[in-house]
Amino acid sequence: MSGSGNLFVLVDNRAGLLRANLSSCARKVCRDERVDGLLVVEAGAGNENGAFQMHFFNPDGSEPGMCGNGARCVAYFAVSELKLPARGLVFNVVNSRGSVQADVRLKGHEVSISRLPEPTGYQAHVLEPLAVGLPKGVEISFMDSGVPHTVVWGLKPEAVEVERIGRRIREHNAFKPGGTNVNFAAVRNRRTLFMRTYERGVERETGACGTGAIATAVIAALEGRVESFGPGQNFQLTAETRLGEELQVKFELDRAGRTARQVSLTGRVQVLERKEIGVC
Q1: For residues 33 and 9, is the Cβ–Cβ distance under 8 A?
Q2: Catalytic residue among 25, 30, 73, 209
């Protein structure tokens, strides 16, 4: 499946037939299928639908707290294949801070998710550019949008050596022991951003990153790089990816202007292929 260019294998394991070590499975599946992660749909209890939960694994077998585009793909699967309600669909995400809510438009292949973890830990100038071999004038900010993200401003994302520089920042001592995802971003206009992402756990550039789009959009708002719409501190920003996909990020800044709430993420989902694979 593709979530705006993020590629995943999704396995329906509600019956519990897959009993092997899921981290090992993820390493094998992601290597063989050349994807950005393994989505496992499991039987769930305690959520409002009581039907399933999402368990996400990176290609290195690690389990991050949230995967925004992965959650959108799971929601699409739940509506198209499990015939669950297209509006107000709620499910838990293993290792995340609670559950997400989704609205799915099958005709338009569009999925919005909300009830996302509120971004925390914003820090401007978290790292001096010279410390990672970047020129003066480059700015590096940090935020946790369910998983840790740095956002690099002041370079041309189209020309950046994403994997070389991204790996250098990802592994910097400032972000140990867990490391960080790295987004290279630029403002296209006051409501549009362009970004490319190096994802930890994948250890390369990916086609898109949902939590990265959220972190980049919220940081852009906090730093005054983009403008709100209507009264108050409401934002609706578009994050463009290198593959030409678009992710819409909506949120409201709190009164202190230090974080965001009511965050939602919207974009396309596509089923690219259905097949049987040797999972483990």
Answers
A1: yes
A2: 209
Q: What is the pLDDT of residues 6-43, one digit of tens each?
A: 999 999 999 888 877 999 999 999 998 999 999 999 99
In terms of domains, do 174 and 91 share one? Answer: no
Task: Give the single-character DSSP code of 4.
Answer: T
DSSP label at residue 144: E
Same domain for 216 and 167: yes
Q: Of the residues 25, 30, 67, 73, which is catalytic? A: 67
Whether residues 49 and 69 share a domain: the answer is yes
In whole angstroms, give the CA distance from residue 118 to residue 275. 36
280 is catalytic: no
CATH code: domain of residue 246: 3.10.310.10
User: Please, what is the end-to-end C-alpha distance for the chain in angstroms?
Assistant: 19
The number of distinct structural domains making up the chain is 2
How much of the chain, in percent, has pLDDT values that exceed 90? 85
Is 209 one of the catalytic residues? yes
pLDDT exceeds 90 at position 134: yes
What pLDDT score was predicted for residue 92?
92
